[in-house]
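Dear colleagues,

As part of the handover before I leave the project, I'm documenting each prediction I ran so the next person doesn't have to rerun anything. This entry is a single chain, and its sequence is reproduced below.
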Amino acid sequence: MKKDIIPLQVLLFDNESELQQADMDLLDQARYAAEKAYAPYSHFRVGAAVRLANGEIITGNNQENAAYPSGLCAERVALFYAHSKFPDTAVEAIAITAKGNKGIINEPLSPCGACRQVMAESEKNSEQPMRVIMQGQEGPVMIAESMKVLLPFSFLDDYLLHYTNTDH
């Protein structure tokens, strides 16, 4: 047996004032999106803002449903909309933030597993790293310079292309 260590590196900032202006603006857009989330059941409002290579900013927020699995996370709402509107434009960065109804969230919000998988696919399709900027309502900011940091063993189409017959 061999044991291996996989280093994961993120950037940590005390607050958003330490960020570059473009990243601060993206976080502001994510906060604004969170305010408009449809979260009548959890009261946990998540906002995401995607910056595309063409300079466009696309926002999304969580959309809940009484049949819980039918809802969708903010990150996927924003990414799916961005890809539907600009299918050939790379995603440079995504900012994610959240607001709860029981106190201030003051730690970075990390995307769920399903969102990480979609983000990894988006990064692969863009053929460039996607920066992931994470913050609660206030406080520290964490930035991953690529989805490979947040999902190092992602399932991508390489497996499908290599191990399946796609000649139909």
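The longest helix spans residues 21-35. The chain has five helices and six strands.

All the best with the project,
I.
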